[in-house]
Amino acid sequence: MSRTDWTGIPEYLESVAAKGKGIVWCVAGAGHGGVSMAGHLGVMGFPVQMYNRTDEHLAAIRWYKGIEVEGEVEGFGPVRLASSNMGEAIEGADVIMIVTPSTAHYGMAVAMAPFLKDGQIVVLNPGRTGGALEFRAVLQREGCTARAVIVEAQTFLYASRMIQRNRGHIFRIKNGVPVAALPSFLTPAALKVLDVAFPQFSAGSNVLATSLENIGAVFHPALTLLNAAWIESTGGDFEYYLQGISPSVAKILQKIDDERLALARALGIRTVSAREWLYLTYDSVGDDLCSAIRATSSYAGIKAPPTVNHRYVWEDVPMSLVPMASMGALYGVPTPAIDFTIDLANMMHDTDYRRNGRTVETLGIQGMSVEALHRLVTEG
Fold this sequence. Notes:
By secondary structure, this protein is an alpha/beta fold.
């Protein structure tokens, strides 16, 4: 779609924002994050609908007609509809918050394609690397003509856990999370809608920036794989960041981060290093990445995953590292440390994450110049 195809959408989003507490939200995903977000929205007084592929996971929410939340937010959040029927769940929703592992984004796009309407906002919480681009490409392949506004969050807004199917604990709501629309000129209008409920969201420059600010790609896969023996011998009973990080392990993470930053520079994207991110997020100071991580008091008490068969690998490798490597190959940026981590994950999990993950082909950007890619993310 060209920029002129979006005529009237900014004005429509202004009218949605003006609805205030009347904005209808659909939360797609009834796991740890989805339950907490839906409950929080209900507590705030918004009309809430929910979708989940497995219907039995919604049974308790339907029975109690809502979700109990505790922690940073306390109260009962009504949910007016909880359905495993995608068309029913998103009907009438102004905003669709996808709160699933990024490995489910492809299937979500396929399921939503026949039902999306002009002006609906679809938010990937978060998009990981290339989430919005993949979602757009899938909708196009599925023949969706609706002018839905795809928004990608840099990270997930909450630290939360589902206690029961209708009860969530919100440990923390982040102070700020950048989001960007595809195309980016719609970000201000979309943000006005999102900020009615979530003032923590701020404007990111574009979806390339939110994708390449994916710090989890640096911290999770290699750290998990390089601690495989310790994880398997203890069931993850050690401090993941504070003990799992050593000077040698941190060198590998630093090289992955260097390659992420090199790709961002090649694409004309300004972003921060992992060490700078630790300072900006947690006030952590260190002469190198190892000392900065060890100085992060917020990481105290966070245990390692109980197994290497964990989303830090099966999600973050194909959805974060594989697209970085694929984009690096397209734009002439070597990624040996990222490639090493992918290869290690493939051997350890006896799979092929390159074949199953996001690539420039699945993102719909194969053969694009940097200039053409920027036109795509800014003008659609």
